[in-house]
Amino acid sequence: MESTTGDHRPNEDVELGIDSEKKAVEEVEFHVNFSKRAQWLRAAVLGANDGLLSTASLMMGVGAVRTDPKSMILSGIAGLIAGACSMAIGELVSVYSQYDIELAQINRDVCAGRTGPEQVADLKSNLPGPWQAAGASALSFAVGALVPLLAALFIKSYLIRLEAVVAAVSVALLVFGWLSATLGKAPVMKSLLRVLAGGWVAMAITFGFTKLVGSSI
């Protein structure tokens, strides 16, 4: 009995070693995939925050010199469209440049014999997608820009409309700040206060300077 048990121990050790290696590889792959998803999500949050703040500041600036709701809404729509297009084109150009660089490196490695033909398909499948990145950037910006637009859309009273925009933007800033801090593993409270204060300052500066310029023209 002892000799039989001893005969099986090496095989069991080998199997345990293989299982441990598989688990280690699976854990590494999980962390890599999670990191990639977190980076994309964080980029989407930052894009939405950009759309939120730039559109809200634009609307507040127009609201400083025009009290009618139409001017404020139209400025927000223009800001949404222009910002989303700008984000999409910028991301498209940037990611296409990265795509071309990485593709050229793959071709050089193939020509030099450092990469086999069977590996090319896998390497190309991991290349960044310019159009997907452009669409994601435009969409995230538009989502953020919709917040101040929807807050002001059905309010005719000038002061209440401004207050509604500030309130809606403040809530959204807190949500985006929390998401950004969570994904970046940063202190949540500091991030919330920093994002909220920055948003208020941006809207106040835009409102104040536009008011000043409008009164002097």
Describe this structure in words.
- InterPro entries: Ccc1_fam.
- Belongs to the CCC1 family.
- It catalyses: Fe(2+)(in) = Fe(2+)(out).
- Its main location: membrane.
- The protein starts with a helix and ends with a helix.
- With 217 residues, the chain is mainly α.
- 25% of the residues are buried.
- The chain has one domain.
- It is elongated and about 70 Å long.
- The protein is built from six helices and no strands.
- Mean pLDDT is 81; it is low at 1-6 and 24-35.
- α1 packs antiparallel against α2 (69-111), α2 (69-111) packs antiparallel against α4 (130-152) and α4 (130-152) runs antiparallel to α5.
Fill in the keyword field for this structure:
single chain; disordered N terminus; 6 helices; mainly alpha; 217 residues
Give the secondary structure arrangement, pairings included:
Elements: H1 2-65, H2 69-111, H3 117-125, H4 130-152, H5 158-184, H6 188-216
Quick structural overview:
The chain is mostly helical.
The unreliable regions are: 1-6, 24-35
Query: Structurally, how many domains make up the residues?
Result: 1
What is the alpha-carbon Rg in Å?
26 Å
Query: How do the helices and strands follow one another from N- to C-terminus?
Result: HHHHHH
Number of strands: 0
Instruction: Provide mean pLDDT, rounded.
Output: 81
Largest sheet: none
Q: Give helix % range.
A: over 70%
Number of helices: 6
Tell me the strand percentage band.
Answer: under 5%
Please identify the structural class as seen in this structure: mainly alpha
Identify the overall geometry.
Answer: elongated
State the end-to-end distance: 101 Å
Keywords: Ion transport, Iron, Iron transport, Membrane, Transmembrane, Transmembrane helix, Transport, Vacuole
InterPro entries: Ccc1_fam
Organism: Trapa natans
Family: Belongs to the CCC1 family.
